[in-house]
User: What shape does this take?
Amino acid sequence: MSVMIFDIETVPDCKIGRENFKINDELDPYSIMKAMISIHKQQQSINGNPYPSGFLPQYMHQVVAISVLIRDQDNIKVWSLGDESSSEKELIERFFTGLDKYAPVLVSWNGTGFDLPVLNHRALLHQVSSTKYWDQGFFDSNFKWNNYQNRYHQRHIDVMDSLSMHQPRANAPLNDIAMGLGFPGKMGLDGNMVMDMYAKGEIKTIRDYCETDVLNTYLTYLAFSRIRNHNSALNIEEEHLTLRSYLEQENKTHFNEFLENWNNNEKQTDQ
Assistant: This one.
């Protein structure tokens, strides 16, 4: 069975901002996004939250990039779905079409808490269907016992959720865990920068960043598979070599930067 590591990048949905927060239609999209975050934070304070956050609810996020790493018995590949001009609906359709076709094991970092709920809400909005993703035994009896919907099944492995014992207070950032294992981490970027990049039209930068998040997640997943005795240290070392070889052959700027940081961090971890 193939494995598909995935990650999404999002920005606030301006349409929801105009409708739910009654934000002035004459404002530019970037100003609307900033206003949404500010208003949401104010609302939390009013409601008595002592630690208000501007992080919007999942349904208020618009998907601007979906990146995946596919690993099957013979090949490994990393890419972002669609292209820089693809609509949100097209990105989501590609994601669920691939899932229905190949039924891979999904792997994520906080996919249970963020990525999949966002995709669920946006699939509902755009009426994007999927048989296998939602199936719990209606179409395939095997899915009754192992499906994508059950938090404790193995068709979707949320590495962060598993490590934290499904306790939000024990959640950890991918960047910290990845770097602690000797992997590159965020390399100076993080999700908080996506909105600014999107406003500047830097879609390629967002897609590249999303792909490096997928790489960090995959490497962390391999380390997680080692402590579960699903992989030996030798197998993981071979997998590292396979991934390094693939990234070198692709010879893309962000992959080369990832490799350089990986080499440097690995040396520091060994010291």
